[in-house]
């Protein structure tokens, strides 16, 4: 839950600056603000994976699958929510800034009424 919360909050409050385009949420246009890459936000998926990875060794040690894990990973696992929240959120911010912002598609989408 930590990396998901970090990504969602970083996207809404920092990347989107609390602006939510409701018509683009339901648009099937390939130019929509939330379309990303064929419907998948690659930056969010990558940030989620990177946010979870440091926690895995400590988890495997906790459930008994891994027997010898460095103490650093155990400490990371014990603070997993915070570590994954901040690492995923920060990486998402970096990747989102590298990607740039998609344009607004409200005027280009033939299924939506045009703004007057």
TrEMBL record:
Manganese keyword on record: no
InterPro entries in the cross-refs: Pur-cyt_permease (IPR001248), Uracil/uridine/allantoin_perm (IPR045225)
Membrane topology qualifier: Multi-pass membrane protein
Transmembrane segments: 40-60, 80-98
Molecular function in Gene Ontology: transmembrane transporter activity
A Pfam family annotated for this UniProt entry: Transp_cyt_pur
Key words of the record: Membrane, Transmembrane, Transmembrane helix
Presence of the UniProt keyword Transmembrane in the record: yes
Example of a GO cellular component annotation carried by this entry: membrane
Family: Belongs to the purine-cytosine permease (2.A.39) family.
Family matches, as PANTHER family: NCS1 FAMILY PURINE/PYRIMIDINE TRANSPORTER, PURINE-URACIL PERMEASE NCS1
Official protein name in the record: Uncharacterized protein
Gene source species: Glycine max (Soybean)
